[in-house]
């Protein structure tokens, strides 16, 4: 059981075993979500050419494109240009 990293659950009254399984599953889910989020952001930023050769943001990536605030979600500045 240890070799395959399984948790022994006796029967339906084994609340501790079920709680341990649920906590392990929640932790694995959170770790996977964090890794997927990092990968998505890395890919999204890299596609726009905002990363240098070392994976850091270029200086022009942090400069604002405009001083005019966004008023609605239909603003042309929010549309991705291919």
Terminal residue distance: 52 Å
Rg calc: 23 Å
The overall pLDDT average reads 80
Shape label: elongated
Oligomeric nature of the chains: single chain
Would you identify the regions where 5 or more consecutive residues have pLDDT less than 50?
none
Largest sheet: none
Describe this structure in words.
The structure is a single chain. With 82 residues, this protein is mostly helical. It has a domain at 27-60. The chain contains 1 helix and no strands. It is elongated and about 60 Å long. The protein starts with 14 loop residues before the first helix and ends in a 35-residue tail after the last helix.
Short key terms for the protein model shown above:
82 residues; mainly alpha; 1 helix
Q: Outline of this structure?
A:
By secondary structure, the chain is mainly alpha-helical. It has one helix at residues 15-47.
Write the layout of secondary structure elements.
Elements: H1 15-47
């Amino acid at each position: 059981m240890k070799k395959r990293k399984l948790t022994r659950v006796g029967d339906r009254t084994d609340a501790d075993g079920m709680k341990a399984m649920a906590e392990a599953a929640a932790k694995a889910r959170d770790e996977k979500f964090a890794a997927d989020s990092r990968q998505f952001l890395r890919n999204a930023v890299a596609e726009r050419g905002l990363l240098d050769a070392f994976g850091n943001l270029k200086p022009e990536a942090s400069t604002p494109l405009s001083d005019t605030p966004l008023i609605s979600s239909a603003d042309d500045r929010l549309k991705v240009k291919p």
